Amino acid sequence: MSAMTDDKVYGDSGLAGLKAALSFTDADLAENRLGRMSASQAARMAKGQSQSRVATIVVMIIFIVLLIVIAVIVLPPTLAPQPANSSAIPPWIIGLVILVVAGVMAISFLRTRRGIRGLTGALLQVEGEANPKASTFGDANQGGFDTMYRVHIGGVNFPVASNVQVNAFDKGRRYRAYYVKSTLPVILSAEPLDS
User: How far apart are CA 137 and CA 126, in angstroms?
Assistant: First the structure.
């Protein structure tokens, strides 16, 4: 039995709560107001970029090893002469499947690289009312529930890591958020627009 709730979370923090929850300083915020990342934010984004690059390379190596196994173990028996009434899969179908999978992997790899490069790209900002939410979904019979945390500000939906970050925003209060656009928008800092 699957269940989904969309719990509205209401925060009660100002700028101090945002700084603690999103891990930014007054110096970071001052740089963000000038339209650029601070040195510490750039270093954090570069570290994330490096980790993503390593993960992508590991996946590509695993895929190449899988292709080699298919080429050495699976294909040779299918290339041998088959009786006319054989139900063996023709080698060209296996080759076509491999090409399609390789194409999907290549497109995914290129999109991921573009998203990773976005982590050190232009700093963007958005203003609007905050709508912090924690959405719980899953099946209690199959291992429990998962929770997704997000904060919606001015047309941008920011995925955040924890309820602490969601609770740092007051529902309906106006904020300015500074972020970089990756595969998903990554919020670097935010400030309330009213006192």
Answer: 29
Going by C-beta distance under 8 Å and a sequence separation of 6 or more, which residues neighbour residue 19? 25, 26, 29, 189
For residue range 132-167, list pLDDT tens digits in order: 998 877 665 666 677 889 999 999 999 998 889 999
Name residue 100's amino acid. V
The model's pTM is 0.63
Q: Using CA atoms, how far apart are residues 170 and 132, in angstroms rounded to an integer?
A: 7
Point out which residues pair with 178 in neighbouring strands: 125, 189
Q: How far apart are CA 31 and CA 51, in angstroms?
A: 25
- Taking the alpha carbons at both ends of the chain, their separation in whole angstroms is 45
Digit-coded pLDDT (tens) for 23-33: 899 999 999 99
Q: State the residue for tokens 């958005």.
A: 126
pLDDT tens string 83-105: 777 766 777 777 788 888 888 87
Is the sign of the CA dihedral 92, 98, 104, 109 positive or negative?
Answer: negative
Q: Which of 103, 121, 116 is nearest to 56 (CA)?
A: 116
Q: Is the dihedral of CA 159, 162, 168, 170 positive or negative?
A: positive
